[in-house]
Design goal:
Elements: E1 2-7, E2 10-15, E3 19-23, E4 32-35, E5 38-43, E6 46-49, E7 58-78, E8 83-102
Antiparallel strand pairs: 1-2, 1-5, 3-8, 4-7, 5-6, 7-8
Length: about 100
Amino acid sequence: MFAVIRSGSKQYKVIEGEVLDVELFPTEEGKDAVLDEVLMIGNGDKVQIGQPVISGAKVTAEILGEVKGDKVIAYKYKRRKGYHRTVGHRQKRLRLKINKISA
């Protein structure tokens, strides 16, 4: 069984027991989060698609904590001017473990 959820401005395909990193939202570590923006649920050859979300469907996930994402480097350069700037950034992410998908 799998589900497609929306968290923040991104969509994620999740299955039970999977660990994934999503955009940070306010919550407490060790608690359970209920993600109710379920866009699609699939179970074998049976697929249920929401318009835009499936009413009553939810995904329960355990919050494992905050982590930092990969480093993104922006390099600014202007030719013949001696101008070079390097800026790095690491986005904070929230690590979730998917416990239950209910339709």
